Amino acid sequence: MFGNHSGTKEKMRIIIVGCGRVGATIVEQLSKEGNDITIIDKDAEVVSSLTNLYDVLGVVGNGATYSVQMEAGIRNANLFIAVTESDELNLLCCTVAKRVSNCSAIARVRTPEYSQEASYLKEKLGLAMIINPDLEASKEIAQILALPSALEVNSFAHGQAELIKYKVPADSMLNDLAIMNLGKTVSQQVLICAIEREGEVYIPSGNFVIKEGDIITFVATRKQARKFFIALGTKVKRVHNTMIIGGGKTSQYLAEQLLLAGINVKIIEKKKKRCEELSALLPKAIIINGDGTNEDLLREEGIETIESFVPLTGIDEENIMLTMYARQVSKAKVITKINHINFKKVINSLDLGSVIYPRYLTSEAIVAYARAKKDSLGSNIETLYHLFDSRVEAIEFVVRPDSKVINIPLMELSLKKNLLIAFINRSGSIIIPTGQDCICSGDTVMIVTTHTGFNDINDILE
Amino acid sequence: MNFSMIRYILGWVLKLEGLFLLLPCLTALIYKEQQGFVYLAVAAFCVFIGQLMSFCKPKSNVFYLKEGCVATSLSWILMSIFGCLPFVFTGEIPSFTDALFETISGFTTTGASILSDVEAVSHCSTLWRCFTHWIGGMGVLVFLLAIIPMSGGSHINLMKAESPGPSVGKIVPKIKQTARILYLIYILLSILQLVLLLLGGMPFFEALNTTFATAGTGGFGIKNDSFTSYSPYLQWVTAIFMLLFSFNFNVFYLLLLRNFKKAFSNEEVRWFLLIVLVAVSIITANIYEVSGNLFKALTDATFQVASLISSTGFASANFDLWPEICKTTLIIIMFIGACAGSTGGGLKVSRFIIMVKSVIRECYSYIHPKSIRKLQLDGKDVEDETVRAVGVYVLTFLLIYGLSLFCLSFDKHSFTTNFTAVLATFNNIGPGLDAVGPTCNFGFFSDFSKYVLMFDMLAGRLELFPLLILFHHGTWNGIFRKRK
Q1: Can you tell me the ipTM of this complex?
Q2: Cβ contact (<8 Å) for B156 and A55?
């Protein structure tokens, strides 16, 4: 009964250096999944507040030093994550850790100069992953701007399939439509996998009736999704111009991507020096030196006629205010970045439209990696997204030949409740499955579920 | 306040107590004693009430420090009330106050008894008395954490409230594993002692009870003369184990991990051993003339020092008759107590070190008024918050001490009696000097004084504040408003 430390089920031993916003979010997510976590931070107060909240061990000290890492048990660790404020420190932490033990190391690197060399650094330093929340956030924003009707776009199967969140407007033909009739009236190539109504999230069955104001999440290929929107009479064209408030790293990444796609970009930044830097880095963009929270300046720069508006200041409250203002004076597509504040219920009730949480993007990527690593046979999880405040998980699995689910028609599998097989990706073509379809070995399969902690495709069975 | 969560935890504590009560039942079966039925009935009653209380799971898992403290204090009070029922119903300790005193003295590992003739008690009651030490030593809530699946990290608050020491930490990331490792070390050490005692020719029943009483650093004797009549071998074994059980348990974990260097460099344990060494030398030198034999003097001195500094309270000699300097030395080490993170009581060596170091720092700050100096313990900075908390702890300790002394003075006993009675209960030691000396008992106090001493025992074991917040009106704010 006592003392069987190792346990029968292999647990992940994870060390996290740096307990800032991202660090705390990762601790929250990974400790929920039952891993053994040790946190390291220089600030004793931060460490003690986290150890009081979660079942983790705290070590106070500099995470880049050998002695502190030894105290945190680096020799037995499986995963080492460095998410301190400083990129250089993160890389140093990982380098030291890799010398001592055989763990996988993940570093957060945000500086654009390093980020360009991410793959080189990753290879030479032997890192498992380099994460860049700003870059991830900008990618996500760019994806939404490419399909402005959607609230959120996540891509699966290397971009073949998309998971799209969409709010049903008042005059939509989806109103009062049962999901089983969707194929007859609108499109067969679309699968609705989750619906949020009045704060509750449902994994819908065929008789579920869609109502006005529901937020639906559906899976489709890129092409089919556009067809679906055309059938609904919604805009599908990407935006032509964008106004970005704040000239931080995310803005820089975003502007690079948008300019590449031929979208005109206007950036409003307060600091003269940064403006000069940006204009050198992004010669095609219009850089305005001024206070982005100034109403007159926004009007002067044409907020009323702009097609999309992205407030990316460092202060969340400002971003929210700017979003609300933009929605009042213009018809622009607005995407709000929220980095810090936690009042998710309040934010949801404000009806801001698309909201991006960079810290969740980072923690999702790490949780997906940790879960995949947990499986002793090697990587099984391809991608993982948390939807509706982590109440729903969308996970993409690679199916291996020894799986219990293969070559059985889906209708004959006894699946867990509140779970849906959203698509099967068979050598590049996306299949929206029916009851007769089978999962084959080598497929990748996407599961949408309200359960948490799935590691393996076999977990979907009862 | 999350009262439903507290109710749930209390329910589980009662169920566990019911389980623990089966051990005396088993003893009664072996010795064919009638009292066993009483134990069985009380056990069933505990499980029944516990099941009622923990039947519905609490809706909310929210659990903060105040809930941890309230749950811990109430568990200990409830456990003591239910644990004293067998003594009352078997008629061995007919007065409820006396029975409660005996049980609290057991659970808090004090070892102060109101019984004048412990050899007259039935086997099953003797075992229950000693077994309460073993349960109370490591703590019942730590045991609960080790076996019951509880989600969330905030349950560290339960452990914080129950475990002794100025700063309670985990030794591995999971609280459940931590609790299991602590109990594993506890059980292993207990078994080792039991085997060594048996090798020394002690009968099994006596060896088992002695082990329970030593492991919890309790000190209920099973003989009227405590340890006087045992052989020097048994006295040495027990003395060494009393010292071992007052080490910081993290040291044993490091030894299990074969990290010897770190284990032996633990500053608190080094200070502890130094204090023991000094005390033993002083006493040996001063009782050498009386005993006339160096080995006898050394044995007696070591046993008494180990017994009192670990807050166990066994006696192998009547130290009340020793020279004044020996008695004073013993009183001082009674105040200092064992290491943090052990099963022992007292102010704890780590608090003592922090206090000594902050006195030195204060002197230094008079020489260099603008200097900034961090206190260090074990090569690590001690947060100013911890230093402050230690100061407040010592102050509160002295305040309660004074108040208790005043309450006891109504009984018209000598000052030495009252002073050492409070000392012996508050630090969970057991015997004091004069009328509460090693050959005497606490039976002669008035009921009022007994309740004061019971409070002291609980406050000492739970390190003051978890118990004190029960008396703060802010704790109970929610409960009345809800009823309206």
Answers
A1: 0.74
A2: yes
